[in-house]
Design a protein that fits this description.
The structure is a single chain. By secondary structure, the protein is mainly beta. It contains one helix and eleven strands; from the N terminus they run αβββββββββββ. It has one helix at residues 11-29; strands at 63-66, 69-85, 91-109, 114-128, 132-134, 140-143, 148-150, 165-167, 172-181, 192-200, 212-220. Strands 5, 6, 7, 8, 10 and 11 form a six-stranded antiparallel beta sheet that branches. Strand 2 (69-85) and strand 3 form a beta hairpin.
Length: 223
């Protein structure tokens, strides 16, 4: 008698099914390449910088830009100052910072061919209690090593020059006083700085002895 088993009860049928399942899953799993060349990674971009182009940056912390010429800084030091002078009632003077630079020697005055080895910058504010006129940015500096120099109206990048003059009541003006220094062996030679300038206000009273005031300020630098 012939044995007609259903096909799903025949052992080789299930063997074929298992083999087909393995093949199908193998094809699905191998659909993507495992090669490192096909791996996707995140990337970012930016505008090409001047440094990447091989160009030098226009900002150089190793130089002091005086009248649009860069002068190499050999040494520098800044001093935080807390100086107030209200001895003359019409104004209140404050000095908050002194910066001293030792530079490669350069010609500070073309007319006289004067050379300078250093540069001193004093930051000052003037608060007027009445209409006054003063020009500390055209004052005179006497250094502790015996040099006397007049302030200049140079253009120094990062500093404010030519800021003084007429100051109305209630107004505070601030800026920098600039001094090229002819001789500067080392910054520690500058123990004190003596700054002199005057101030005045207009008056019709010729007997008003308070109308003019001479400032004579000595700044002691903590080494």
């Amino acid at each position: 008698m012939k044995n007609n088993k259903p096909f799903y009860k025949i052992w080789w049928f299930w063997l074929i099914v298992v083999v087909l399942v393995v093949i199908i899953f193998g094809m699905i799993g191998g659909g993507g390449s495992s090669s490192d060349d096909d791996t996707s990674n995140k990337a970012s971009g930016h505008t090409t910088t001047q440094t990447e182009k091989g160009a030098k940056s226009s900002s150089n912390k190793d130089t002091l830009d005086i009248n649009y010429d860069n002068h190499k800084i050999l040494d520098q030091k800044s001093y935080d100052v807390s100086f107030n002078d209200n001895s003359w009632q019409p104004a209140n003077i404050k000095v908050s910072k002194v910066s001293i630079f030792k530079l490669n020697p350069y010609t500070s005055d073309d007319d006289s061919n004067t050379k300078a080895e250093g540069y001193i910058i004093i930051h000052m504010s003037v608060a007027a209690n009445r209409d006054i006129t003063t020009y500390p940015d055209q004052g005179t500096l006497v250094t502790s090593d015996g040099q006397q120099v007049d302030a200049v109206l140079d253009t120094v990048k990062g500093y404010k020059e030519n800021w003084a003059g007429e100051i109305s009541k209630g107004v505070t003006k601030q800026g920098d006083i600039l001094f090229p220094i002819e001789k500067l062996s080392k910054i520690s030679d500058m123990k004190t700085l003596r700054l002199k300038f005057d101030a005045y206000y207009d008056t019709d009273n010729y007997e008003d002895e308070n109308a003019q005031h001479d400032y004579d300020i000595t700044l002691n630098l903590n080494q």
